[in-house]
Amino acid sequence: MSAQMLHSIADAGQCTLHLNYHGAFLDTVVIGAGLSGLTAAATLRGAGADVSVVEADAHIGGRIRSLRDIAGEHAVGDLGPTWVWPKYQPVAARWLERLGMATFEQFSEGDAVITGYGPTPLRQPVLSQDGMVRIQGGPSALIETLANQIGGSCLRTSARAVSVLQDGHKSVAINLSSGEVITAQRVIISIPLRVAATTLLLPWAPPALKDAMLGMPTWMSTHAKAVVLYERPFWRDAGLSGRIASRVGPLIEAHDHSGVDGSPAALFGFVGWSPEQRRNDPEGLRTAILNQLAECFGPHAANPLELAVQDWATNPNIVTASDLTHPAAHPDIGPSILRASHLNGRVRFAVSEASELSPGLIEGALAIGETAALKCLSETHLRD
Questions:
Q1: Range of the domain at 230
Q2: Are the beta carbons of 301 and 290 closer than 8 angstroms?
């Protein structure tokens, strides 16, 4: 693969279509086309509900995004989450099987390189996590498959919701920044909770709900991830797994990110620089990453086909000022008010951080999206 075959960071939602709703009265509107929102919408569509998804960003997928080839047809690197553990995550295992998605083991053969514990890098074997696998095509393939199940006519990007208001006794009104109003029986809010609390007008929300939303950090919102592509996985020839653990960075952790057969050859790493450091010196960061990789894996590492850095802290649809001020640890299970229905059963939230299963992870997004949809269907049946 040549450098010309690659282009800049692209989204997972190349299939998205844009349609107007023309004032139609819908069963459900889902605000947010990340994994949890798309899972909710696919579940509702599977039950025959009339569903539409509105997404503020220009792409679907939320925190799932990929580096793609120049044609935009194939993901060559994950710029958001990468791993699932179907052995221990029953919801992910069920959805992957249902959608016909194959997985493969994370490459871990050979030694890891440890830096920051002495004057020179150290080599030592490090056990991989049991059951850790990758999705063929990356998590963006999961997004695309869900989007296809929902139908492009039901997905709308660059459509920012600004308020969710009660509209009589049996419906809600979703107001968009364009001035358009969409009316539905119910709405599922599936954007980061702090973003929802600070950008959506929710006059019906009690103080306890607003406090819970503001108190729930968005996992990975302040992080940056680097993906580096090469002609071949040369580090494997030296008996190295591609894994780095570092106290000095700029990558504090790195892994082999090559395809199932070693192609495309790639490494990825989590950036240890603060959002402010990354913002002030993006070229310095790129240089430092390549210097670190060369120190760990040899001079070939300094000459990649492509280096892409996805800085989630620059996306206002993901991060808030509170996230930047108080970077989050991995989320705990949030308060139950985030999983309850509101506005007489017309509003629910479906965000990975609020899940009772694996909050912040792919498993959590799938679980809470599915659960929110099933509860909406159940409550509608009871009302009917």
A1: 106-135+222-314
A2: yes
Going 36 to 310 to 289 to 118, the CA torsion angle's sign is: negative
Of the chain, the end-to-end C-alpha distance in Å amounts to 57
The H or E element containing residue 241 is: strand 240-246
pLDDT confidence of residue 75: 87
Torsion sign over Cα 285, 291, 296, 297: positive
Q: pLDDT tens, 222-237?
A: 999 999 999 999 999 9
Whether 5 is in a domain gets the answer: no
The one-letter code for the residue type at 323 is D
pLDDT at 23: 47
DSSP code of 61?
B
Nearest residue to 35 (alpha-carbon basis) of 63, 58, 9: 63
pLDDT in tens, 98-137: 999 999 999 999 999 999 998 999 999 988 889 999 999 9
Residue 216's Cβ-count burial label (10 Å; 0-12, 13-18, 19+) is buried
Residues 213 and 242 in one domain: no
Output Rg (C-alpha) for the chain, integer angstroms.
Answer: 21
Same structural domain for residues 78 and 147?
yes
Point out the domain boundary residue: 255, 283, 314. Answer: 314
Beta-bridge partner residues of 103: 135
Residue 372 in this model has a pLDDT that exceeds 70: yes
Question: In terms of Cα–Cα distance, which of 11, 59, 9, 15 is closest to 33?
Answer: 59
Residues 234 and 373 both lie in one domain: no
Please provide the DSSP assignment of 35-57 as one string: HHHHHHHHHHHHTT--EEEE-SS
- DSSP run (H or E) holding 194: helix 193-199
- The total domain count for the chain is 2
The CATH code of the domain that includes 194 is 3.50.50.60
Task: Tell me if 282 is assigned to some domain.
Answer: yes
**CATH number for the domain that contains residue 130:** 3.90.660.10
Q: How many CB atoms lie within 10 A of CB 384?
A: 5
pLDDT per residue as tens digits for the range 190-229: 999 999 999 999 999 999 999 999 999 999 999 999 999 9
What are the DSSP E strand ranges found in 56-170?
65-69, 75-78, 83-84, 103-105, 111-115, 122-125, 133-135, 155-156, 161-167
Q: Which two tokens stand for residue 322?
A: 């509170």
